Amino acid sequence: MAESLICNNTQSRVSSVLNRAVKQFGKKFMFDSDEETCWNSDQGESQWVVLEFPQPVKVSELRLQFQGGFSGKSCKLQGSAKEEDLKHIVDFYPEDNNCLQISFQTVQYYSSPSVITTFCHFCIRLDKCMYIVTIFSQIELLHSQLTLLVQ
After folding, report:
1. Domains (ranges, CATH) in the chain?
2. pTM for the full predicted model
3. What is the sign, positive or negative, of the torsion defined by CA atoms of 48, 54, 57, 62?
């Protein structure tokens, strides 16, 4: 099993928390490796999760786990270097179930690999998604062959 890239210096933001009940449904539950806990967003057409890493990272795989019946219909992964506007990386379409889903593998949408490896900010936009159970991402560190799992 790979070790987690999420550290004390990794910052996360979410669009909302169900009934503002942060202690019960807050963003910290996306990364606690406990299948009994989750981040629950408030109701709304579009929800999002932003991750800001302390160093540039390259996404090689994104894993999402939704609560069945409350998954995003169409989703986007965006990224940017610090202080820059988000750039579109990939659209993905998760299945409406509670299985861990690999949404894409080894993104190669840019002719120059350095374009994506400089990203520190990632935004996952979830369309028509009311509740999120857990979000996992498999991340590759810049200039490293080591593949790490974000939990």
Report:
1. 11-150 (2.60.120.260)
2. 0.73
3. negative
